[in-house]
Amino acid sequence: MLAPDVLTFSTLPAQDDGDDMWTGAYSAEFLRAAEPSGVKVVLNFGRENRERHRANIEYIVHLYEELRETEIPLIVEPVLWGSRVPEGLASDPDSIADAARIGWELGADILKLPYPGEQAAFADIVDRTPVPTMILGGRRPPPRRPSVTWRRRWRPARAVS
Questions:
Q1: Rounded Cα gap, residues 52 and 38, in angstroms
Q2: Domains and CATH numbers, the chain
Q3: Which residues share a beta bridge with 40?
Q4: CA–CA separation, 135 vs 160, rounded Å?
Q5: What is the pLDDT of residues 74-133, one digit of tens each?
Q6: Per-residue DSSP letters for 83-102?
């Protein structure tokens, strides 16, 4: 899988200056030639800079248009990470569901969504999306931990691994 965009919160590594700096880093032509198993792009809500938000949306639509006739799925990761996002909104189930809706309306074949903190709330979001859904982030299991444990925990929320 390739992530053709760059999202950082500072011009310095591991720093946060308050607003994100986002850019599409690779052309659709390059991505098609690489034949990845998927292309994942961030859709960040809550920015101060509306032009950067517009450019983010336009890049996703461009990728959708360029990849729709291929076997390469477009994975959209709608997040609420901008400086205008109030405390708690980034994990609010209704906000995540609305961001997910916008992601698939822009052409996502798969959504990668933040976990709202409750399994039932995540299951409700997944039920409202017409495309497969993955969970964003979270703690990775130790390498020898059987995947059966993961399935028992997350399958009731209808997430895929």
A1: 24
A2: 5-157 (3.20.20.70)
A3: 75
A4: 8
A5: 999 999 988 899 999 999 999 999 999 999 999 999 999 999 999 999 999 999 999 999
A6: TTPPTTGGG-HHHHHHHHHH
